[in-house]
Amino acid sequence: MQTLTLANIYELQGLKEDALEIYKNILQKDPTNSEAKIAMKRLQGQRKKFSDLNTQMRDFFVKMEADVEFKEFERWLLKSWN
Prior knowledge:
Elements: H1 4-12, H2 16-29, H3 34-63, H4 67-80
């Protein structure tokens, strides 16, 4: 069963696409659900904010070789999802 609680849990675990799908399904059933509307706007805003950066970091991740690069990627991940 897809609920706001499950979507919140997914979001907290970093499964933002899964959470977004649940929020979409909730709004299809109840277009007046304000919590789902707010959450969707928040997640869609995050997606837009980091869309180009995610592509750049994915390419960087694929080519990483040095420990310094791994540390830089780790810092980016922590910054992006907090």
